[in-house]
Amino acid sequence: MIEARSLSKRFHDKKRGEICAVENVSFTCRPGSIYGLLGANGAGKTTTLRMLATILEPSDGTALVFGHDIVEHPEKVRSSVGFLSTATALYPRLTAEEMVEYFGRLNGLDEATLKKRIDDIFDRLDMNSFRDRRCDKLSTGMKQKTSIARTLVHDPPVMIFDEPTLGLDIMAARTIVAFIRECRQAGKTVILSTHVMSEVEKLCDVIGVIHNGSLLAEGTPTRLREEYQEKDLEEIFVKIVTAHVAPHAGVEVS
Amino acid sequence: MSARNIGIVYRKELLEALRDRRTLISTILVPILLFPILTVGVGFVIADLIEKADREPARIMILGGTDSPAIVSSLAKSKNLIVVSGPANYVDLISNKKIRAAVEIPPGLQSGAGTDFAPVKIYMYSGDLKSTTAAKRIEDFFNDYRDNLARDRLTVQKLPASFLKPFVIKQQNVVSAEKVAGETVGGIITYLVIIMCLTGAMYPAMDLTAGEKERATMETILSSPISRTHLVLGKFLLVLTASLVTAALSVTSMGVSSWVIQHFQDQSSGSTMHIKIGLGAVLAVFLVALPLAVMFSAALLTIALFAKSYKEAQSYISPLMIVVVVPAIAAMLPGIELTPRLSLVPILNVSLLCKDLIAGNYHWNSIALIFLSTCLYGGAAIFIAVKMFHRESVLFRS
Predict the structure, then answer these.
(1) How is chain A split into domains, by residue range?
(2) What is the ipTM of this complex?
(3) Between the CA of residue A231 and those of A201, A218, A225, A237, B206, what are the distances in Å?
(4) How many A/B residue pairs have CB atoms within 8 Å?
(5) What is the CATH number of domain A1-80+161-254?
């Protein structure tokens, strides 16, 4: 379970002054379902997910991840989370196995448990053929599998995916999509950020639309379709964002 | 504090460092090869050049000397000197290296009718090896001529040869070989240890911070449960290891190179160098340099962490070299001695103390003051490095 409570994040920029990247965002993600954080580039998706993964500290508000407060117990939160994004690369000079081992040890697994976990994951993801190959010699698909293995090694109950298919080819993206589905089937709490509508259609049980750092709308795809009288999720997204932008624009004009 | 987590990070960073060609070159290969190349290699090349210049006949010009034909004739017959005649624009000829030197013989030199103490002037190209060699040959010739003339005059006056040299002067070293080593090579060894502690830490420090950002692995590691304090301490220990290994290999390599040179010199000249550096002194130098290496490693980690890329980190760190080199060199200057005030100046204090240690002078008060103050600076540097690893504006600088 993830419960975000009035999460806000402000950055200071020398030229632009204080920037509010995320403002008062609250939502709940339940085990066994996928929550999709939908937004354009710069909407605040990555910042929100980084706060949930405790890579960034919130300026205001907090969140409970698997019952742990992200401000009070960030290390316990990280032990409960598997975080995957295009910005979480692999160590090029480690082999696929060493990479997964390293993160298993950092997650406190003992050597016997670690070995068993790695054997299981490598069998399941069909990774044994490149087990001893250095990460800088792996293909994109192999790298994705190794990243998945890295996030799974400690069997976290919560998975956070930040635009996980960005820049990947079709085959690599399919591997990731299949993995996200497996996480849901395994009863994990899953949150993912994306701006790819087809991914949202395929995967998400609940959608949160985020724009300019604020959560504008939230609901199941069915509920959102009913509420906005549109079948196409892209049209719904545009309607939500436009409705938010127009009043603000009006205020500025008047 | 979890030593287990720090150990996990350290072992992983060590494994990666041992697989990185650039780290191996900067930490192991350069310190091993630098000194043999600089000392033995360059030494042999210089010796070869000097030997060649010694063997090669030098073209010289004689100015004047028309009333000293015997001297001119004798000079012309000297080994490895070729007297050329021609226009008297000897300055241009020497400048253009057409001739190597010119000698001006004063009037009446041979007959002794000239002005007393009129100089025999030798014109040369200062700094040019072949010109210096030619000038030396001319000088040797005239020294011999003068000595023979003096001996003949003493014989005529029936005076002994000791008339002109009633006594000889001899210098005698009375201090131990360790003290001689401290004064002669102590400064260089100290400089070497300090600079190598810095250069050894440079590449790993950049690789483990800016390199991680560049390769997008920083976010990967930050998403793991390890605390940032443990993470930075694990990284710091690896940088410190690289720093100390580089310094140790440099000193070992320098020791071996010096032994080789000394061995060859002893064989060729039969002389013995009265320099001795004890293993205890070397270990003491390393012990004192340890907190300095701690300070360098933590400072480099902190500075490099600000950079977004390896290249940017290089531009931040390069000026640090000057900050370190200046006090390290200052300790080698004659007249700078360890005082209580200088004992608190970072780098300079260690540099001066190490020189003393190599010379076998153990002033325990200074040792304690310098060791503790450097430990304090090192501790402060680690503290700052840990603080920086907790700052989002540094880790995610865009």
Answers:
(1) 1-80+161-254, 90-155
(2) 0.89
(3) 11, 16, 6, 11, 52
(4) 64
(5) 3.40.50.300
